[in-house]
Amino acid sequence: MPKLTFRGGVHLKDYKDLSANAPIVFHQAQGELVFPLSQHIGKPAIPVVKKSDAVLAGQIIAKADGFTSANIITSGSGKVKVIEPRMTSAGVMAQCIVIDNDGQYTLAPGVGEPCDCTQLTREEIIAKVQAAGVVGLGGAGMPTHVKLSPEHPEEIDHIIANGAECEPYITCDDRLMQEQPGWIIGGLRVMLQLFPHANAVIAIEDNKPAAIASMKKAIESEPRMSVAVLKTKYPQGGERNLVHAVTGRKMTSKDLPANLGCIVDNVTTLAAIYRAVCLNEPLMEKGFTVTGDAVAEPHNFLVKIGTSCQELLEAAGGLKAEPKKVLIGGPMMGMAITDLDIPIAKSYNALVCMTHDPVEEAESKLTACIRCGRCVRACPVGLVPQMMAEAAKAKDYGRYVKLHGLDCIGCGCCTYICPAKRPLVQLFKQTKPVVLSLQSQGKL
Asked: Which end of the chain is more exposed for a tag (fewer CB within 10 A), N or C?
């Protein structure tokens, strides 16, 4: 019987109380809308518009470049202002389509027209999801049509709706489950139509009682759906951990969930699937939390993709204190940013503004490794971070690979639990691309 938890992990102070009781507010961007061509795993999309072209909300402005890529849809109407490099949360310039927003949000023909999805074939459903530009909205950014196309669909017996939302501060998924359970259930119905041998499990951590109650009520007449109440622990939302917690099955680093009979999608992704297939609404908006002790009025938003982080922060009352650190995402797996004039992309789910910097504080307490083994016990993947760090610092990349360093999921549990305050996950994130580059060149 599944234990509703996983090996390793850590218990965190979650800071969700800052925004957990803030209902979702719909925000229509007033400023320009900026769309990076790469908002997903795989190749960047290819622009199909040019400067001065008029566009309508819901229109494709960049086409997927191959199967593992995703369409980019404009969330507003207006004209193409420019196609040029703009700053992203990764701190690098990336090619973007910039729309001069007319504030009218005039919809493209057919957008928003309901569709009876029960009359669609499997191929038609997947094609609608693909055309809508839906990707994993929990942070990974995998094009969703790829997930919906496993090699052996008849072997899928579990659809897992990821409602864990284990990252500190972030509450937009929690609020979505409370306020729009029908969107999520609608997405699961579509998934179950694709996989007739499967049942659906909505996995929610036990620190979200209102969301649990909402989803249980929503599935009362759904015999193929259930709610699994998971023990609260980070990083519960990782696919490998979630599959094990819900089914008891163990994934290796070489496995995909589909290899174990599972398809895992974030609850926000499921809502996007429902809206794409049943309402003909491509991916134009998503849930987003603006929070942190430096924010005047922490909010949960339904925000247009392409909106400036600066504009959304102002919609949350702006800052009440000078932040020491600003993150896209949460403090464990998010990215620190220095410029708020960056667009909200598909896979972003929060802006966190903190009056303290945990990394800076840890650096001031840094000591030599005391070989306590806590990082090993905390690692949800079963790695030995201490030995990986030694290999990485010595640039012994062959040993790093033998220690399964490429299996690291970057969750940060090792760094969080380390009493010597070693920057382990930061080192691993720097090492991984070097190793992958060497492997691609045949030098490792």
From this structure: N
